[in-house]
Amino acid sequence: MARNELRPVVKLRSTAGTGYTYVTRKNRRNDPDRLTLRKYDPMAGRHVDFREER
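Structure tokens predicted for Large ribosomal subunit protein bL33:
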């Protein structure tokens, strides 16, 4: 099954300013806006918001 652009790979960058990133996939039909997830940032040592960058 071929991968299409309905679920693109997005990079999530930490809002703590450490430069740490996560890579994930998102469903563009359900989440057309930029994705924001609260995840652990090992450089900051705590949970922070991670925003989708383009």
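The first strand starts at residue 9 and ends at 14.
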